[in-house]
């Protein structure tokens, strides 16, 4: 590598080449170029990346532009005879393994969040992310046209399957979804991977506390703010599900949380569902609060998926460094998950013993996200000519043993 290029840039290219070994070296180098430009400029637009890289590499902008465009083009749109295109799906496991290789060695638990997002009338994005310290890092995604007809089921199943080899079998993996994504096939697919669904459901259905009792409306389970409940039940009259049901109605929410999971009532804590909301922070970071994805002019879903690979790597870059810095602050601005209030009223149910439900404190918030903190640390290092900070993941999620 050219010794005249910024040391942080050279270091980042080495990291990307090492952590994405399935890519050819030219593919990995351009992925490093894209992700470095996105992280440093806080923008995922081609022209912005071209100007930035042209300046730091001292190369003509047209040369940089062609390299970046050829990288996300499909094979039929590439120049030359040796045309290879990025198969995005092949990067999901290496991306997840990259994260876990930097994970704290004392922790063997992981929370994933699945969600869908739209980009105007152009795209619908289906994404599974690692959620960590108030942020999300995409590890698997599918982009379809916003008006595409048909079920998302095949896409979600393929995304889940694509990640299985990325997590050691002895890890505890929780997969969270909002109520719009609950489906019995989704729940079962998560279980089949040896992972644990943690899925919010609507309150219009019915549940049964024991075979001897009648089905009763879920809406009658808890009826007041401050009430909580958990127990083994059968949910739904149609497509019944034997599961643990967690319920909580916290102040400031229009409806209670109703969560179904295969974890035992003794292990599962409804407060874990609060981490699902961190994927919303991911969408903010990638859109208006960060990389400006909502400004993209792309219309081809396949090209957009390849650009998202660079976005995912840039996000990993920032969050790993910002998260480690936050974890080592004298006093983190986010309370740990075990710093809870147990003031909620547990509703009595004769079919099960009472169990206190721990609630997340909702008032304290970060003064600065790990995403933003990582950007500022990297920027300061580059300005001072210092080596690239080393990123690690120090999770604040540690479930009780089952």
From TrEMBL:
GO terms for biological process: DNA transposition. It holds the Pfam family DDE_Tnp_1. SUPFAM superfamilies: Ribonuclease H-like. Residues 125-316 form the Transposase IS4-like domain. Residues 340-349 have a biased composition (Polar residues). Residues 332-355 are annotated as: Disordered. InterPro entries: RNaseH-like_sf, Transposase_11. It comes from the Bacteria. One of its GO terms (molecular function) is transposase activity. This is DDE domain transposase.
